Amino acid sequence: MYSFSDIRSFTSISEKYPPDKITQMLNYYFSERDRVVTQYNGIIDKYIGDAIMVLFGINDNSAACDNAVKSANSILNKLNNIKDFLKQNDMPVFENIGIGINFGEIIVGDIGSSSRKNYTVIGDNVNIASRLEYLCKKHKTSLIISESTYLNLSSLEQINFKFLGNVVLRGKAEAFKVYNKI
Questions:
Q1: What is the per-residue pLDDT for 106?
Q2: What is the DSSP string of 129-165?
Q3: 55 lies in which domain range?
Q4: What is the CA radius of gyration of the chain?
């Protein structure tokens, strides 16, 4: 189970503020995101600029989809408080984030060269999560999940999503059924 999130309009924010303010903002947001991810048994795989790659279900897959969705909803519910804190502390304030969640097999391990490796996850299902996050921009929504995620959610979580449609993700030949948060 993999989640990929990204701050909207980060490039334009970065152009307007000095590096120390951007660093303060990111560190605060990442700390808040880390608390929520940990609360729902997730593991932050890595930060890529303003993006966060999160893994759920590494030890227990039974509630991975519910935990990923609950984590996403929790951080989305906290965004106004995060933005208020940023504003009150003279840091850049971002408008929104996008989150894509996909369920499926991934490859976990040390990846890299003989002189430098990172313990990380790779695979098509990780790429799909990233593509779903990107779709959030197009559909002006904050959370999009794959059909495989939706089908593995509890009925209590499924009712919070609606079918968005069949979409062809960048780099993919087949259309995917996707769902967004109601």
A1: 86
A2: HHHHHHHHHHHT-SEEEEHHHHHTS-HHHHTTEEEEE
A3: 2-181
A4: 16
Please, what's the b/e burial string for 21-42 (b: 16 or more CB within 10 A of its CB; e: otherwise)? bbebbbeebeebbbebbeebbb
Tell me the whole-structure pTM to 2 decimals: 0.93
Planar angle of CA 127, 63, 43, nearest 5 degrees: 55
Give the chain's residues under pLDDT 70. Answer: none
Q: Which is nearest to 28 in space by CA: 99, 88, 72, 118?
A: 88
pLDDT tens for residues 59-90? 777 799 999 999 999 999 999 999 999 999 99
- Residue 43 makes CB contacts below 8 A (sequence gap 6+) with 37, 54, 55, 56, 58
How many folded domains does the chain comprise? 1
Structure tokens at 139: 């559909």
* Cα(26)–Cα(35) distance, integer angstroms: 14
Cβ-contact 2, 126 below 8 angstroms:
yes
- In this structure, what CATH number is given to the domain that contains residue 29? 3.30.70.1230
Structure tokens at 123: 């695979």
What tens digit of pLDDT does each residue of 158-177 get?
999 999 999 999 888 899 99
